[in-house]
Amino acid sequence: MFKRSAAFYDAIYAGKDYAAESAQILEWVRVHKTTSGNRLLDVACGTGKHAEYLCKTFEVTGLDLDAGLIEVARNRLPQINFVHGDMCTTELPQKFDVITCLFSAIGYLDHTQLQQAAANFYRHLQPGGVVLIEPWLQPHMIRPGNVGIDQAEFEGTKLVRMSRLQIEGNVSICQFRYLIGTAEEIRQESEDHRLTLFSRAEYQKALEDAGFQVHWDDKGLTGRGMLIATKK
Predict the structure, then answer these.
(1) What is d(CA 206, CA 190) in angstroms, rounded to the nearest whole number?
(2) b/e for 180-200, b at 16 or more Cβ within 10 A?
(3) Is residue 175 part of a domain?
(4) Residues 33 and 97 in one domain
(5) In the structure, what pLDDT confidence band is assigned to residue 2 with cuts at 50, 70 and 90?
(6) What tens digit of pLDDT does each residue of 69-123 get?
(7) I want to staple 181 with a disulfide (CB 3.0 to 4.6 A). Which of 45, 68, 147, 186 is the partner?
(8) Domain that holds residue 165
(9) Does residue 1 belong to any structural domain of this protein?
């Protein structure tokens, strides 16, 4: 997914307030978790920016399908166990008190995979634990054709990213085009990311079918809402 951009992923999202988001996660956990343990699984952990803050409170394990992002995370945070694997089928030897799946990573799944991921989260969660899932945009939030631009500088490199959103059925396609300039060259890279436009009801049904009780926070971390699922 991020094969072309893993090396400069953190530069692109340098303005994201991971500290404030992690503080809000702690508050949701305080309200909804009833276990006494402190193991947290950060699913689709990326480069570990949330884990960097969450590890101050929890014993964190990170999981991500993208090998490039996992490599960055391991280099940044060698004290944390980062696992290369997918959220639908990866089996870990321990259960967790908290599972997070943030930055709308759940949208990269299709309907069957959403059910598989929900069941896998349930298997890996302790009774009394909580799962926090930040959804991708719901269908009514989408503006097809929307174009965005981001700029970043890092390690002597200047970067411009343009993005465009288009729709195919119930799938949104985020087209990313990168212009990367160094003293030696200017090069172009491209990525297309496909994310399913699940409705809130579809998320909720997948989680309830897996055995969870589901709560919804309208605001969430970034205005997309937050699914809060608990296991009795």
Answers:
(1) 33
(2) beeeeeeeeeebeeebbbbeb
(3) yes
(4) yes
(5) confident
(6) 999 999 999 999 999 999 999 999 999 999 999 999 999 999 999 999 999 999 9
(7) 186
(8) 139-196
(9) no
